[in-house]
Amino acid sequence: MSETGTGAADAGPFAEQQRLFKLLSQDTRHLIIQELLGHPAHLMSLAELEYMTGKSQAAIKDQLETLIDAGFLARYTYEPSEGKRDLPSQFYGFTERGVEVLHDYKYLRGLPVARALYENTRKTEKIERHESAPRPELPAAVADALAFDEPDLDAVDGGTTK
Length: 162
Description:
single chain, mainly alpha, 3-stranded antiparallel sheet, 51% helix
């Protein structure tokens, strides 16, 4: 046969695409990404991720570590909440590399849908408390990449007023 052994695919022009596809398509990682896209702050606590994905904390932690190791996500700490029982201090969110990949693979087009799904999910009191908890700021480049114009539904009245 030819020189196309198993190592040839790893060095080919589509190797990075294949690696990213595997990273993004695993079920739990995909859910984590969708939930982070939909969250108003794009930063979520482990409890929020557990609730919104329906996966166990152990499964989520494993996949978060994979996404962090790949440079896709980072762990962000809100130090004023450290040591407070009722407020989270650790959050997970995208890195600049993560939003670049999301942009390249057209995931950012889904921001409005992800937000709508997130907003229309009923949350427990604990999750609402986590959702409204203070959190650190994302790096400016990440926040800018994730910004989109949300429709002002209060201003939409069917055109009946002048």
